[in-house]
Amino acid sequence: MERYNLVVVGGGSGGLTVAAGATGLGARVALLEKHKMGGDCLNYGCVPSKAVLRAAKAAQHAREAHKFGIRGVNDPGMQDGKMVMDYVRSCQAHIAPHDSVERFSGLGVEVFMGGGKLKSPHEVEIEGMNKTVWGRHIVLATGSRAKIPDIPGLKEAGYLTNETVFDVEKIPESFLVMGGGPIGTEIGQAFSRLGAKVTIVSSTPHICPKEDADIVEVLVKYLRDEGMTIIDSARATKVEKRDGKKVVTVQEKGSGATREIVVEEILVATGRRPNVEGLNLEGIGVQVDGSGVKTDETCRTNVPSVWAIGDITGPYLFTHWAGYQGRIIIRNTLFPGTSKCDYGNLPWTTFTEPEIAHVGINEKTAKEKNIPHRVFKAEFDENDRSICDGDYEHNFAKVVADPKGKILGATIVHPHAGDLLAEIVLAKKWGLTLDKLSNTIHAYPTLSEIGRSLGDQYMRTKLTPKTKGRLTRVFQWSRR
Q1: In contact, 151 and 237? CB cutoff 8 Å
Q2: What percent of the chain clears pLDDT 90, i.e. is strictly above it?
Q3: pTM as predicted
Q4: What is the pLDDT of residues 101-121, one digit of tens each?
Q5: Which end of the chain is more exposed for a tag (fewer CB within 10 A), N or C?
Q6: Phi, psi of 115 (to 5 degrees)
Q7: Three-class SS of residue 297?
Q8: E strands within 320-473?
Q9: How many angstroms separate the CA atoms of 293 and 6, rounded?
Q10: Going by DSSP bridges, is the β-strand pair 288-289/407-414 parallel, antiparallel, or unpaired?
Q11: Separation CA 312–CA 293 (nearest Å)
Q12: pLDDT value of residue 473
């Protein structure tokens, strides 16, 4: 039996990070992947969704060119789905070699194209190869897949998920999205901008339910202004086919009122479920719950030699989180000591336009947990670069800080929110207070000045009427 320092099951972001990093340090690593290298991110998630969002943004910006005094640009109307998806596939093809078997084999990783089944805390049977490998440590990184709700008629009518939506060769004239989370909202806006009439049905009081209502209100205004329909606090209860169309019965949670929505296509984006089947986790005693494999802050399961990262563990289903956890795994398996995941400084971004970027606790959570806090808000209509770019209306940044100005969390709603958040994440992680942002030089005119504006908001609170009165008297005395 071949023996390895690490046997990694799953070739997505987390698994590839572990495999490349550990091999680079001199460890012997086996990597098992039963589908496609690159996992969900490259093949069905981040890469194709951001590529289609970019194509959709181009169409929308053409519609809005008149705002900047550009003549001769008209509404581009319905787009050619095949051409758009060809662009998406070209982006995937450009990135794929970085995640390929050839690259990782060249790095020294021993790659096996097959699934893994745990036979013991140290042994993994490779699916379809009649081969078992031994690992000092086993890392589970098998990801997640779309959770399909049990709705009468849905299976028979047919639907798309994030794994199939990018195979669409024709933009549907009408498109219903089940689910108002980031996946449904992003893809919904993209298809709307490409020409489809889009309806989002969200079971929560508002889309993107993890964000504060005032943040989401900005996004919702943009989406509705672009022609999208959003139905909150509702759910699909039945689907049927009529005259070649899909008829979705939607019921409102409060009143119980129902309506029928007729569409060409349905996207199911009602959540994710971890890929734990076939691993024999119960057989070796690894604990699993509804969110996936249970781990501690070091990414270790209750079986000491077995670790798990990424979507298979929940609750944070982000590519960058899986990659970060991969680095934690390398330190904890190959070196003495214990590294723990930094949950408090995990950023995330919903890549709609405008984007919503978030780190730490939001205002709602601070209130619910009775955490002493103050809220500082900076509007982009006071940022000169944002005004020149035409992105200033309604967008803003908001920081939740403790009474001494230490950052507890922040949210930005703006077309470039994801990039702008990085400075605040850095400040939060290293305990910098808001006055440090105020005293940092930011280039003018840049969007990054929003960070300084937040710091300035905090600094103004230090100048109380009493303090100003004292200063006024000192300055009067100095003029004698």
Answers
A1: yes
A2: 93
A3: 0.94
A4: 999 999 999 999 999 999 999
A5: C
A6: -75, 170
A7: coil
A8: 347-350, 355-360, 374-379, 396-401, 407-414
A9: 18
A10: unpaired
A11: 6
A12: 92
Contact yes or no for 398/380 (Cβ under 8 A): no
User: Distance between CA 397 and CA 377 in Å, rounded?
Assistant: 6
**What pLDDT score does 105 carry?**
97
3-state class of 30 per DSSP? strand
Give the DSSP per-residue string, 15-27. HHHHHHHHHHTT-
Determine the Cα–Cα distance for residues 308 and 226; give it in Å rounded to an integer.
41
- Residue written as token pair 């005293």: 439
Which tens digits make up the pLDDT trace of 301-360?
Answer: 999 999 999 999 988 999 999 999 999 999 999 998 889 999 999 999 999 999 999 999
Q: Token pair 């504006």 is at which residue?
A: 453
Q: Give the other-Cβ count within 10 Å of 126's Cβ.
A: 20
Q: Read off the amino acid at residue 329.
A: I
- Contact (Cβ atoms closer than 8 angstroms) between residue 298 and residue 324: no
Looking at the chain, the number of H-run helices and the number of E-run strands are: 16, 23
Q: What is the DSSP secondary structure assignment for residue 35, as one 8-state letter?
A: S
DSSP state, residue 433: B
Sheet holding 229-231, edge to edge: 229-231, 197-201, 174-178, 265-268
Rounded CA separation 450/176 (Å): 36
Other Cβ atoms closer than 10 A to 154: 20
Take residue 116 and report the two structure tokens written for it.
Answer: 């893994």
Q: For residues 266 and 158, what is the distance between their CA atoms, to the nearest angstrom?
A: 8
Q: What is the DSSP letter of 312?
A: G
Residue 53 is which amino acid?
L
